[in-house]
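The authors assume throughout that readers already know how a fold can be written as discrete tokens. Each protein is reduced to its one-letter sequence and a matching series of backbone shape codes. I therefore recommend that a typical entry be quoted early in the introduction. For illustration, here is how one protein appears when written out as sequence plus structure tokens:
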Amino acid sequence: MTDIILGSYGSLDGRHGRWDDAERVKRLEKVNAALIDRAERMMDKEANAYSLFQAAIVLQQQVHQRTEELVAAKRGLEKSNREMLEAKEAAEIANRSKSNFLTAAGHDLLQPLNAARLLLSALSEASLSADGQHLVGQVDRALASIEDLIKSVLDISKLDAGVMVANRGAVRARDLLASVAGEFAPMASQKGLRISVRAPDVTLLSDPVLLKRIISNLVSNAVRYTQEGGVLLGARRRGDTIRLDVVDTGIGIPASCHESIFEEFQRGPEAAQDGPGSDGLGLGLSIVRRMSDTLGHSLGFRSVVGRGSRFSLEVPRLDGAGAPPLAEQPLVPRAYGIADARLLLVENDRLVVDAMRALVARWQCTLRFAQDIPTALTLLEQDDFVPDLIVADYHLDHGLCGPEVVARVRAAAGRAIPAIITTADYSPQVEAEVARQGLALLKKPLKPAELRALIAHHLL
């Protein structure tokens, strides 16, 4: 029995192939190590599963938190969009209000000035002494300065407000420059200056109204600051563009002023000296720059003190069909008179009516006036007054426009009575509408000589 037991567990004697105690311990250690390794692997698996479980919970919390943040951001964005939309609508309403205000302000400011110029013209035709005529001339120059200032300030306000919109079309360069040169020829002649035009027969793509005002402002400055020589209006081909130049032989602009001349109320030091060139307001070049930016035309200049300046404008060239010639209007009175002409004045400002009545009385014309369509039709029906020509303000009361009155009077009279539309609204839209209806346009304040010449042009 003892042998059997020892055979099972080994003995101290290994002769019969039995295990001794050292071998048995070694074997048990291996078994124990294997069991521990298996146990550790099982624990690691359980730990990994627990870690994954914890990670899943953390991820779920992060997803929930991020979802809440996205929802809050979406709500904030929707609120911001609503606020931006409301702000945009408010800005559009403000811009429309500003546009309406500027239009009304221009009309209301220029209306009394228009009446003053007309009354002054009537006074100048009266029998006055030399001193009286001198005073009339001084008042006229003062009113002209006020007119320039009002127009310039309104132009800058409209440009800054963004209510002056470019309406691009075909413009014939030679006709444009010749038209501007003709308007400034009398001013240049008084100073003994020459105005010349050198331009090929090319067509430009630009807003004809704004482009003409840019060139006019440049020519006005050139004539003002030139004492000897003259002013050249030129055009040169430069690839796909045309460079319009206004060159003078004036006092020039010092280098220290090159950066500031396009700012409001800025003039060179020479301009501040007493003399014929000292009456500028320092707004012309500021308006030129703003209008050039509105049109997208590149503006540049070169100047040498004592030798003159050249201002240049790069305008896109328009190939193909050219623009129609600019309509010409006489700027000086014709040799013949307009006596006995019957004029219908459509105007809602009584001061302007009185001024016009005093003026045309000097021309020996008959003037009747109306402020709306019923009054005008009453003159035709009851008073048997058929005018030879209609002079109508564009903006009348209650949203009525002068062209509407002209159309109704023509229909009642049964013939196309010649008509002139006057306005203190300098917007391109008004000019385009008047041109579309084939009517003549005069801008306020009216120049009596120009008005008389245009009346004569239509009647004779």
